[in-house]
Amino acid sequence: MSKEKLSKSVYLFGDRKADGDASMKNLLGGKGANLAEMNRIGVPVPPGFTITTEICTLYNTLGREKVIELIKDDVEDGIRFIEKIMGTSFGDKNNPCLVSVRSGSRASMPGMMDTILNLGLNDDAVQGLINKTGNERFVWDSYRRFVQMYGDVVLGMKPASKEDVDPFEEIIEKMKEEKKVELDTELSPADLKELVTRFKKAVKKVTKKDFPDDPWEQLWGAVMAVFDSWMNERAIFYRKLNNIPEEWGTAVNVQAMVFGNMGLTSATGVAFTRDAATGENLFNGEYLINAQGEDVVAGIRTPQQITKEGSIRWAKLASVTEKERKANFPSLQETMPSLYNELFETQHKLESHSRDMQDLEFTIQEGKLWLLQTRNGKRAAAAMVRIAMDMLDEKMLTAEEALLRVEPQRLDELLHPVFHQDAIKKANVIAKGLPASPGAATGQIVFHADEAEKLAAEGKKLILVRIETSPEDLKGMNVAEGILTARGGMTSHAAVVARGMGKCCVSGAGSIRIDYKARTMVVDTITFKEGDWISLNGTSGEVYEGKIATKDPELSGDFGKLMELADKHSRMLVRTNADTPHDAQVARAFGAKGIGLCRTEHMFFEGVRIKAMREMILANDETGRRKALEKLLPMQRSDFEGIFEAMHDLPVTVRLLDPPLHEFVPHEDANQKDMAKEMGITLAEVKNKVNDLHEFNPMLGHRGCRLGNTYPEISEMQARAIIEAALNLKVKGIKTFPEIMIPLTGTLEEMKYQETIVRDTVNKVFAERNDSIEYLVGTMIEIPRAALIADRIAESAEFFSFGTNDLTQMTFGYSRDDAGKFLPVYLDKGILKSDPFQVLDREGVGQLVRMGTERGRITRPYLKVGICGEHGGEPSSVEFCHTVGMNYVSCSPYRVPIARLAAAQALIKEEALSKAGKKTDKKGKKKGTKKALKKMEKKAKKAEKKKKR
Ligand code: PEP
Ligand code: MG
Fold it and tell me: What is the DSSP letter of 147?
């Protein structure tokens, strides 16, 4: 690429002016865009510049030398800009300009990529800085940090394995031993100077090169290392976990250094405008006097609270007396009241401006406050809901905006079990830490992230226990039920990442002692070994001995309010897939508006039913089958009564038998022998029948409506059981709306044949009982052919339900049962962007769904259409179903709230897109409201009745 063609590669910010602004996140990354915006609204930010994400992408294709050539002049201008504002000079002996070099992608990826601080220091600059500040200790401390960080990030001097110590930390430990001190802060300036010498020696030994003294060489090394870190293993993993595309790249922010370690009037900290764990509207955060940024999050020193209120709460949790708190851990509000006030005003300004909870980094350098970063704060799911609802109450957000602020998938965290009150009362609390990320977790102790991965793959439930966590532990954190750390505060790596993942986390449980080598955790006098069970309460910070029973959560408070709001703003309804009264009740409590799929096959497995079922399968003729089906009828009827009662007043779609019959017979010798005995036939007869049922490809074999069409008596029995159950409940005054669903239809004739069987049976029952109820007969659309001829199928079917599990299987030609062999590889290699069995493939399967819906409605304009495949509870698929114009989605009970929110978001996004007035019907009324839908449904019913007549 020639230089002429390159758009602006460097954006300046400083002195309350900026080239960029908050809207430019794609180009400047989140950090760069926000630094620019902060300048624009008058927040004190050290000057600097942002190298765009486009350059990162170019770097990945053109390489280092070409990229340096392209951006060299602009970067040099950027440094001049910083020098001018700060009155310093890059590499100058007397007044050196020091900078930080940080990554910053579009989406925040905390701790995943690299940062370098104090860049520009060398043996000359050190003297200049000492002369300027008169603070020898601070300068040598900064220098040793710089060499250490640069050595690690740019020169690759990391620990060789997880058991090895960091090569620089090893040198520090040795020095502390020699000097007989315990803390880094007890090392003298001369010791720190000696550390720099030893660090540089170590660098020379490993890299065979001198540590670079030239600041420009340092700068280019750091910029390229940040670009490289976009492709490091943990960043790649984080991107996969959070669906962040590789093409985005990272920006690089070069910014004048300000120092929180310049003595007792300097400090550094991290703050949140609201509580990231609970959502409470309380400014909070942690700081340390005389420290640099990473000290706060690294968990090496115990950080202090920013507000007095927060400090008092912390002391209570940490069992620290008020006297001790005041003496050793006072809040910023108490130690630096006027700076605290300035910080409080600034956080308020930033939150009001961004209209979202902010996560801030600040530094106080010799009594002056600087903001280094602001971004939308990561938060636990409970906090996400509460903040959205509070901001709605505070009129900071509209209802639509509040609904869009909650990620539907994250609601899953709030639907996880919580500890049973009785069990928790009896539990033995062994330690207490900070309630870093809420929830309840029970699991076996594991100390290393890679082992956690292995054990989790074996199906073990684990608690990852670490002294503190680092980005290397990400995979282990991801598979663990919960995370426990001995060190670190509410803003430690463990706390921030766990909240982002929705994992329960207790951090900074100071009383536990962890020995990685011995693989033990000691609390008081008790030793816990790897594999022992412990439990965590991320809401209270308590750690318990052993396994603790859990129970289902409830939809109340802010969550309940959010759900009500979602229903007001959605067009599509949410039903559930349930085949027991218990599941139906759970789903109802979560707001399901009916059952969209009641699979009947599970009902045939329990107790005596399986015997009757096998009798039916083994029968040689229709008479034999009918005899066995007679035994099954009362059981089926009572099953349906239970489910209809649980779903009273709401529709229930019952699917007739679907799976191949071989699934109901035993395949192992011993079980076959038992079956022969039970049935009073020979083992050979059983074996013959099982062999007869063998199919080469059962998924495409004798299943679905093919069963009911070859053995109509099965469909008859099921239709009778459904209608008799409904009539029985009618007598008791319970309203039911059965919808009988034919599975796996591929031709109109198949559907019609089943329809006739069902309607004839129903009419017989009506006549016998001299009573009737309203019911529908419809079909699943699971075979591509059915979608293609949906207009014809709709001649017979009164409703469609897309079975996208089978439809995906048959459209892709991927077996649902065997895809595990190649899908993970396809996802890993990027051949597929997502698993089509989880996220509906809009391009292919989606086309069939859209076409099926449209064609079905050519024949029946008000055809009721839904989805009952796994996709019905996945947010992006729910959005797609909305755009297709479905009446409802149906999903498992625990995904009902997720689907309700996703349905609301789909309508809100649609309305935002179609500018006001565009999508109105003839009478000027807005399409898409619930009222309009109800009207449509009424019309549909009328039309259906007319048709039947
Ligand atoms: C489907 O195929 O999408 C469906 C819901 O049916 P099943 O998963 O029972 O085959
Ligand atoms: Mg199916």
Answer: H
